[in-house]
Amino acid sequence: MAEAAKNTASSISSKSSREHGDQRPPTSRRAELHTTNAMGAVPDRDIQEEQSAAVELVTKPPFGERPVCFKDTFREVAFVFQATNAIATSSFLQGASAIITVSIGRDLGMTQGEITWITASMALTSGAFQLGIGQLADLLGRRLILIVGLGSFSLFVLLVAFAQNPFWMDVVCGILGVCSAMVVPSAIGIMGAAYATPSKRKNMAFSAFSAGNPLGFVFGSILSGIATKLFNWRASYILIAILWSCFTVLAFWTIPSVEAYQPGVKFKDRLKTFIKTFDFVGTILTVFGAGMLTAGITLGPVDGWNAAHIIAMLVVGVLLLVLFVLWERVWPTPLMPPHIWKDRNFTFIILTCLPGFMSFISSQFWLSFFMQSLQKLSPLEVALHLLPQAIAGLIYNMIVGVLLHRVNNTLLLAIGSVAYVASNVLLSLMRPDSSYWAFVFPSLILSVVGADFQFNVANMYVMQALPSHQQALAGGIFNTLFRLGSAIALGSSTAIFSSSIGTTEALEDPMVPYKKAFQLSIGLCAASFLFLPFIRLGTQGQSRDANSGDSKSEAGAAPPAAITLSQGVVGVPAKAE
């Protein structure tokens, strides 16, 4: 009788809860369900559905909620597209230039070293200025710096179209690197702060965003090939100027105001803070140190390694970079916070991904040059040969967005390293008359596996290693290392290529200089295997359980930020549509 009374009371209580709305938290209701079942009562259909929903809530994390800085999902998608274009700025221009280098060099009478500097100067200045501009964006405003960067890029790329000599070409390309340095850390800062909470939504957004770097190179090559085929190489830069002018106009509508400073702080006050805290000395040391080192490596084969000015540039460049590291340890608001290198995973992820990306940029440049010089392909034909890489890259980025929170990210890094090595081995074995489908095609497919897998993992981790109001700085650190690495890789491969041209072996076999350049890429990407065993990284971007608060993301926590500006409230989620 007592047991029947309890069952009756439980049934009445359950019915009342359904009629008037049970306001208790899910954990309390699940506890009651467990107690009722233990006493032998059979839950009705509504209780079973509630119990199933509760279990699903725990076992199946939500996709993630739309950040409040976006008014609707369409505005969110438009921003992610714009941010992807932003990070593709430098690589898009590099890709566009790579397949028309022969035409440019012939029209302007450029040497091999000057031709290489078309691409290397952009990578050098982009990397050298990104740390400083990343801090500048955090202090003065990410949205402002991003829009100014897009507008200035469209202006200066138009000047490239009217270049009349090698000096004009290389100098303006260097200025374009500064413009891209304004765009990239600002976009990364907004992305990281807006998507502050790990979730599947963040993974998908960052996967699309990360696609900009490798795919920008490929799509830049394709559009440049089409424009050159229809008109000439100058039309390629005019087309880029038109595209980025459109992106600049759209930026006023698509870019949200997600800043590191407290909303309402006057620009005058932010400017005062900038003057007091900006690392001017660190910026100067980075720019001149990286510039001299890369210039020395690139000009060495042409002017001779024993030349006094080459030795001076190499020695002074290394010395300035060493001084930069020492300076960052004492300046209160450094460009590159030393504490970030204390994060074991961050250090080894960078050491793993950097040589792979260096090999990617170098091999792409020399593959395009090989197709134009030895295979005598037109820019449009080169672009069509590179098209499978773009298609594969889009597919891989969608796959990575799904895998980041499901598969151990150390494994993804390892897959990327293997793909890089296999890709460059194929390129080093090919001949001018080799089958495209046997060598170049699989190499392109494999290279973008390495780039997409490693870039996504590294980018996601870096954005979690620093606090939200230093997200632009985090993006600057990440891209600075990769851009400077690209410049050094191009300079080193040019040195090897140039030193091999006049040899007896190269005269008998014109493929020898290209083979040695590809062999350098093999050595670079193979170096990543030295650091993979030290990475302890699980999944990233997993949504936190509402009840337990646990997360599968294993990003290291960073100490309090050095920047003295107050942190604004950013990235607060809103209801998903």
UniProtKB/TrEMBL annotation:
Presence of the UniProt keyword Transmembrane helix in the record: yes
Keywords: Membrane, Transmembrane, Transmembrane helix
Positions of region (Disordered): 1-44
GO CC, any one term: membrane
GO molecular function: transmembrane transporter activity
Transmembrane segments: 144-163, 175-196, 208-231, 237-256, 277-299, 305-327, 348-370, 382-404, 411-430, 436-455, 476-497, 517-535
Cross-referenced SUPFAM superfamilies: MFS general substrate transporter
This protein's record includes keyword Oxidoreductase: no
Subcellular location(s) of the protein: Membrane
Residue stretches of biased makeup (Basic and acidic residues): 16-33
Domain Major facilitator superfamily (MFS) profile: 79-540
PROSITE patterns: MFS (PS50850), SUGAR_TRANSPORT_1 (PS00216)
Major localization class: membrane
Membrane-related topology note: Multi-pass membrane protein
Protein name according to UniProt: Major facilitator superfamily-domain-containing protein
